[in-house]
Write a structure and sequence with these properties.
By secondary structure, the protein is mainly alpha-helical. It has one domain. 57% of the residues lie in helices and 10% in strands. The strands form three sheets. A two-stranded antiparallel sheet has the order 1-2. Strands 3-4 form a two-stranded antiparallel ribbon. Strands 5-6 form a two-stranded antiparallel sheet. A hairpin with a 3-residue loop joins β3 and β4. α2 runs antiparallel to α3 and α2 packs antiparallel against α5. The longest helix is centred in the middle third of the chain and has 35 residues. The protein is elongated and about 60 Å long.
Length: 231
């Protein structure tokens, strides 16, 4: 498909990640009898297990649950980028705005794919005894790829001068509190471009903005609660 008018990665591409998660989960079901009765659920800094749990639904499918939560977050962020308030001003043409959104969407998709692949390997290491040294190498590679991808995104956007906004962008100056908090109850947008730099911020004048913050804080506790119930 042509990318001339794309603002985000096509949602269908996320089905690839759903398929990868499904393969990991189905493999665990098919190989259930080969999974050890005690599973490592925590590793120390040298990637040697220091805590174990009895084989059960929770410990076996823990990483699939994490994958699904992370995938939902990334897809939500991608949707928010696509439907966020458009930047305005003489330096921000429609084409630059499209490139800004598409670059962010590609980064989010790549990050999501890396995390899905990483946790699939972590799960395989725990369940099937795959190489722990490779897991350590993979962890280092993951951080390097994320940092490198973020650096590339920043450089790409700055070269396009997409991070510069003219005076008066995003509404009245009085809508910005403390220089970087956007508060505008009259603006229906939940996500808006940051006043300075690159990226997005929330409209704290809308109840949905606060709900997003609360949801992000609740996700780790929700994951822990689900796992505890499954053990």
């Amino acid at each position: 498909m042509s990318t001339n008018h794309k603002q985000s990665v096509a949602p269908g591409w996320y089905l690839l990640q759903v398929a990868l998660i499904a393969v990991s989960a189905i493999s665990a079901v098919l190989l259930w009898d080969q999974i050890p009765d005690k599973l490592a659920v925590h590793y120390n800094i040298t990637f040697h297990p220091d805590r174990y749990a009895a084989k059960g639904f929770g410990p076996v499918f823990l990483f699939n649950i994490v994958q699904l939560f992370l995938l939902a977050i990334m897809m939500g962020a991608d949707y928010a980028v696509k439907h966020a308030k458009q930047q305005t001003g003489p330096e921000m043409t429609n084409e630059k705005s499209r490139q800004f959104r598409y670059a962010n969407s590609v980064f989010l998709y790549g990050l999501s794919l890396l995390l899905v692949l990483y946790f699939s390997y972590v799960q395989a290491t725990t369940l099937y005894g795959w190489s722990r040294p490779l897991l350590l190498i993979g962890t280092i590679a993951l951080f390097l790829l994320i940092i490198g991808g973020l650096a590339f995104l920043i450089i790409y956007i700055r070269r396009l001068r997409l991070s510069q906004q003219s005076e008066g962008d995003l509404g009245e100056e009085g809508r910005w509190m403390a220089g970087g908090i956007y508060y505008n109850p009259q603006d229906p947008s939940i996500f808006v471009p940051k006043k300075y730099g690159i990226g997005w911020t929330l409209n704290f004048g809308r109840p949905m903005g606060w709900l997003v913050i609360a949801t992000l804080f609740a996700i780790p506790f929700l994951i822990a609660g689900v796992v505890a119930l499954m053990e």
